[in-house]
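Hey, I'm writing a tutorial for new members on how sequence and structure tokens pair up, and I'd like a real worked example in the thread rather than a made-up one. If someone can provide the structure for the chain below, I'll link this post from the tutorial.
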Amino acid sequence: MSIKVLYVEDEPFLARIVKESLESRDFAVHLVNDGKAAVNVFEEVKPDICVLDVMLPHRDGFTLAGDIRQRNPNIPIIFLTAKNQTEDVIKGFESGGNDYLRKPFSMEELIVRINNLMVLSRKTSSVVADHIRLGQFVFHPSRYELQRGDQVRKLSHREATLLQLLAAHQNKIVNRKEILLQLWGDDSFFNSRNLDVYITKLRDYLKEDATLEIMTIKGVGYHFRVG
């Protein structure tokens, strides 16, 4: 069965090239050129993955990703952006993106990233638990929530995915490269720095429970100590 792609792009020439290239590789592409209209198409076709341009009329890609995440928390999202600013890329991840490509990009790279995210998505969907108890916290992966008593913290998609990976390997060492490949699809220097940011955030969220600790194993990865 063909992978269904929701592709949102308002640049006609690029949209046609990408759509035809993906269809020639047996992807089923649903092309939309308007950010606002994309939500209705998403609900209608129920795609397997979304490829979103950032600069769109009526609703930018970041806002659109947030709307999509409310409807399907686990669907893979790739951003296409002409922007080079680090804060824009981070904003993309915070809004629910799994990966990004800077324009201009090669079709081969886009296809590899789509296939990689689809494989990771299938693996994740098969192991998602309703909740995971971590010391004084209860982590709800599917809801992106970290709960301690009556206090509930909403996590970003990236934070929840990282915590879920660490929780699946609690009291074991997880290789840094493995984390980068599973969450970002590559272990580039930029993504490595992003990982440092998210590890710092999770440490801050969990600091109220002294029995939990995300330890850095220099040159190797992380050890999530629980209990």
